[in-house]
Structures are given as structure tokens and as C-alpha cells.
């Protein structure tokens, strides 16, 4: 029997940190070091990752990500056994598809200890002259695949992005722009659909649950 291909995915690329030079003027723990933790990078392109999977960013639906999406740390909002909400660490400032590449600009939350620790580690790598770079791993749901190659996704909804030191696609980089995760795919299909099917007025993540109040003032509890 032919193995069914999952439509939940993550793909990784490196990151470019825009204000790291300014941040290095201050010691670790100094609040000024974390006031403007802005980064940008290519979150996905059309090249194959080391597993032979590939995507077409021209077919990405990124409206959801830009309006509701968040950055998490290394997919720990799903992988961690407890206190998962602490690993949401930032949000997008901008994002667009350029020449079949998914470019993203984001900012880490200054009051998040996990965001600060990630920022410190990236600065440490840069100051140490490391040849490695942290990257981004996109999370989403495949909508269409190449009928001649099921490993090539031609259309997808993007919902969140993980910042990680372990990419799957080596063309992303986070400068901080693409990503390598062997598994840890994020099964977000039903969550995305539920949020697209209604207007959301308020939402908050508590542990492994998301509390939502929709436009009809219904309180809905969703397991992440």
C-alpha cells in the first residue's frame, strides 16, 4: 500500500539580525540590549531540502500568518511537555513573496526570557565568528501538490514560523533566512480552518490550549 503523504509540514532557512550591532553595545541582562530585536530573512524558497522535499513560495497563502501568526522557539510550542506558551517569542512585522522566495521581517518580544536567550545566543555565534547561522522553519498546511511529484508542494497556507538552530533546508537563513527539522511537523490544519471560518476578536494561548472569542462573542477553547 502506498504511504499517504502528510500535508502538515515545516521547512527551514537562516535568519539575518538587523540590529545586533547596536545590541552588542550593552551587556547581557541590560534591558537596552533587547529593545529592538528585529530580524529578517528568507523563510522558504523553491530548492529541495536534504530530504528531497520542495515548495513553491509563489503558491503560499500568507495572509493568515501576517494577521495572526507568531514566531516560536524550535517548535517547542508543540514539542515541549509543559509550559508550551512560554515558547511563543515574537511576531511578524512584514512578509512578502519575492522572486519565488518567502521573505519575512519580525521582532522578538523584549519581555520574553526565551526571546532574550535566543537573541543572546545569536549574538554570541556572530561574535565568535561561527560559520553557522540560526534559521527559520515554516509551519503550515499543504493545499496542493505536484501530481507528478508528491514531495513538491505547489500551494500552502503558512501559519507560524519557528526560529531554530537546526534547519532542514539549507537555503534559509536568519541574518537571521530556510530550515532542517527531520520531523516535528506541526499539525495545524484544523486550527487554521477553524480560525478562517470565523472572525476572531480575542485570542490567548494558555498552556496547550488557545482561548478564542469570536465575533458572536462565543468563547471557544482549542487544543494546540
Percent in helix: 10-25%
> Could you give a short account of the major beta sheet?
10 strands, mixed
Distance between the termini: 31 Å
| SSE series | EHEEEHEHEEHEEEHEEE
Anisotropy-based shape: globular
How much of the residues is beta strand, in percent? 35-45%
Number of helices: 5
Overall pLDDT level: 75
Please report the total strand number as a whole number: 13
Task: Provide a descriptive summary of the structure in words.
The chain has five helices and 13 strands. Strands 1, 2, 3, 4, 5, 6, 7, 8, 9 and 10 form a ten-stranded mixed β-sheet that branches. Residues 171-198 have low confidence and may be disordered. The radius of gyration is 17 Å and the shape is globular. The longest helix is centred in the middle third of the chain and has 15 residues, at 113-127. Helices cover 17% and strands 41% of the residues. A hairpin with a 2-residue loop joins strand 11 and strand 12 (209-214). It starts with 7 loop residues before the first strand and ends with a strand. It is α+β, with helices and mostly antiparallel strands and 224 residues long.
Present the secondary structure layout:
Elements: E1 8-17, H1 20-23, E2 38-44, E3 54-55, E4 60-61, H2 63-68, E5 71-73, H3 76-79, E6 88-98, E7 101-108, H4 113-127, E8 135-146, E9 149-164, E10 173-175, H5 189-196, E11 200-206, E12 209-214, E13 219-223
Amino acid at each position: 500500500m502506498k504511504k499517504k503523504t502528510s500535508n502538515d509540514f515545516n521547512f527551514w532557512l537562516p535568519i539575518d539580525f538587523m540590529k545586533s550591532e547596536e545590541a552588542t553595545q550593552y551587556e547581557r541582562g541590560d534591558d537596552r540590549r533587547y529593545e529592538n530585536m528585529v530580524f529578517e530573512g528568507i523563510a522558504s524558497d523553491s530548492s529541495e531540502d536534504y530530504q528531497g522535499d520542495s515548495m513553491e513560495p509563489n503558491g503560499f497563502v500568507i495572509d493568515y500568518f501576517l494577521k495572526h501568526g507568531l514566531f516560536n522557539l524550535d517548535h517547542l510550542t508543540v514539542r515541549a511537555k509543559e509550559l508550551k506558551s512560554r515558547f511563543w517569542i515574537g511576531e511578524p512585522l512584514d512578509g512578502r513573496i519575492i522572486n519565488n522566495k518567502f521573505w519575512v521581517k519580525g521582532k522578538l518580544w523584549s519581555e520574553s526570557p526565551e526571546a532574550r536567550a535566543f537573541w543572546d545566543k545569536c549574538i554570541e555565534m556572530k561574535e565568535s565568528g561561527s560559520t553557522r547561522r540560526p534559521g527559520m522553519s515554516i509551519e503550515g498546511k499543504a493545499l496542493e501538490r505536484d501530481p507528478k511529484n508528491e514531495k513538491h508542494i505547489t500551494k500552502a497556507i503558512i501559519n507560524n514560523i519557528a526560529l531554530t538552530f537546526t534547519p532542514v533546508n539549507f537555503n534559509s537563513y536568519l541574518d537571521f533566512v530556510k530550515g532542517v527539522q527531520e520531523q516535528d511537523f506541526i499539525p495545524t490544519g484544523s486550527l487554521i480552518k477553524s480560525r478562517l471560518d470565523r472572525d476572531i476578536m480575542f485570542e490567548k494561548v494558555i498552556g496547550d490550549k488557545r482561548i478564542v472569542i469570536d465575533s458572536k462573542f462565543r468563547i471557544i477553547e482549542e487544543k494546540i
